[in-house]
Amino acid sequence: MLLEERIITLFKRNLQHTLTYWSVFFSFGLCIAFLGPTILDLRCQTQSTLQEITWVFFSQQFCLLIGSSIGGIFKTLFCSLTGLFVSSLLISVVFAIIPLCHNVLLLAVVMAVAGLAMGVIDTIANIQLVKLYQKDSAIFLQALHFFIGLGALVSPLIADPFLSETNCLQGNNTSNATEIMHHIRHTLVGPSASNLSQYKLPMEGEVVTQVSYAFWIMALINLPVPIAVFLLMKRERMVPCCRSSSPPLLTQDEMAMETQSTDAQDPSSKDSDMEGHGSLFSCCRGEHLQGVPISFFGIHILGGLVLFMTDGIVGEYSGFVYSYAVADPMKMAHKTAGYLASVFWAAITVGRLGAIPLSYRFKPAGLLLVNLSGVIVTVLLLLIFYKSTAFLFVGTWFLGMFLSSIFPCMLAYTEDILEYQGCATTVLVTSAGMGEMVCQVMVGSIIQIKGSYSFLLSGMIIGCLGFVLFFILLFFHRTHKQHLAGGPGKTHITE
User: Fold this and answer.
1) Residue 269 has pLDDT above 70, yes or no
2) Are 32 and 218 in contact (CB under 8 A)?
3) How far is residue 35's CA from residue 318's CA, in Å, rounded to a whole number?
4) How far apart are CA 64 and CA 61, in angstroms?
5) What share of the chain is helix, strand, coil (3-state, %, to 5)?
6) Does position 338 have pLDDT exceeding 80, yes or no?
7) Is 90 exceeded by the pLDDT of residue 379?
8) At what angle do helices 389-404 and 406-417 cross, to 10 degrees?
9) How far apart are CA 403 and CA 423, in angstroms?
10) How far apart are CA 367 and CA 387, in angstroms?
């Protein structure tokens, strides 16, 4: 069989929980990808400058980072499901009210709320899925992150028919207005858009845009997600007015997992199981870190740094591959270059889907080694064939494939090392979000100073740093195993 009967049985027993967590990650992907394509229509709606509208990106990314940091405070199942319900419902509300925001500051506040909701979803769903499946979580984490890519692919497809081909503020349009709008739209993929001052778009006139329909459609598409979370809460008897006579799902699941488990656990360790999964701030409190070995800290820090680098590459590549393609020496046509980011995200989505069976056959450490090596080789080949338009598409595809499964593999790997008793999920999610934001800003500044060729060179340096950090992580893993073998010692964060 493709999967062991034990894993299939475990999946069936946790089916409603698992599908619910996957659905909220679809919400996450839906929300993370819509801003880039619609940003010019939102500029018209708010009648703001290009420089002002890019602050909307920053508000979303910054609050996503805060949401990821605090998401770990929702420790119990009740708090976690409540957090997911509120966050997924907020995303639908945000989609519904974005067309009503005619001021750029109000739009930035709304997107900040969406960012907080996305960050909470990111941390809670990862923690709860690891909590359910533990040593078997790698397969289900790959599927979880596949749904981000699926949402990120669906969102631009919904928005595309409603986007303005020319300037949506009616005025004196130039003959090549359509081409200029396509160029600016693809340049504004990331929060650190460059050279915006050269584009003088009108700020007054009649607003002609139909993008509101795209947001309302996405609000409706997302609405089943909070309903699914609510149904799970009802099934778990967490809704006071909807008490059910059937026993809660989690109690049945935990009993089944304890019966099926082949690893004997100490009763005291069961009592403290998963207690360490607090927020990033609670993880750093001194009273929780007494007696913890140095390898425990090293694994958290190095795992976070590896994801800082790899998610940084995801952010900077998706944000600037278009700008790189249309600049010297490639000088690709604007319309052709606009497909590169779509190819990249499609590769990430397909890669996560393909990694599901691979996660069952191979250990996370082996997959991480192959993926990190593949990232370096791909970027190196892109540097060598820097004038080839065809290879840029091929390299973009393979880079997306190699980067796709690094995060879920690293999460499964570090949690397994720490026996699911650390703050690994919160630290890794926060580090990844921080890397995506920081590296994008940093590489954007370097490109403006040094030119477009530094785009790939920066990616090569970041990739090599991630590879080196991973080997140091392997060393800390070995040290941690030796510490555990030497005595029972305190290896988890106490509450």
Assistant:
1) no
2) no
3) 13
4) 5
5) 75, 0, 25
6) no
7) yes
8) 30
9) 23
10) 31
Q: Which of 314, 291, 327 is nearest to 379 (CA)?
A: 314
pTM metric for this prediction: 0.78
Query: Which tokens in the block code for residue 162?
Result: 């409603």
Q: What are phi and psi of 366, to 5 degrees?
A: -65, -40
- Distance from C-alpha of 185 to C-alpha of 43, rounded to nearest angstrom: 11
**Amino acid, single-letter form, for residue 57:** F
Residues of the chain above pLDDT 70, percent:
77
Check whether 392 has a pLDDT greater than 90.
yes
Residue 167 DSSP one-character state: -
What does the block give as tokens for 75? 């420790």
Joined together, the tokens standing for residue 268 give 């005291």
DSSP classification of residue 319: H
Residues 321, 333: Cα–Cα separation, whole Å? 13
Do 127 and 144 contact (CB within 8 A), yes or no? no
H or E stretch at 55: helix 55-70
Give the residue-averaged pLDDT of 299-316: 91
444, 192 Cβ separation under 8 angstroms: yes
Average pLDDT score over residue span 54-61: 83
Comparing C-alpha atoms, which of 464, 359, 483 is closest to residue 417?
483
Q: How far apart are CA 344 and CA 401, in angstroms?
A: 8
pLDDT band at 255 (very low <50, low <70, confident <90, very high): very low
DSSP letters for 321-334? HHHHHHSTTT---H
Of the candidates 156, 151, 150, the one whose C-alpha atom is nearest the C-alpha of residue 353 is 150
Whole-angstrom distance, CA of residue 156 vs CA of residue 189: 12
Q: Are 214 and 162 in contact (CB under 8 A)?
A: yes
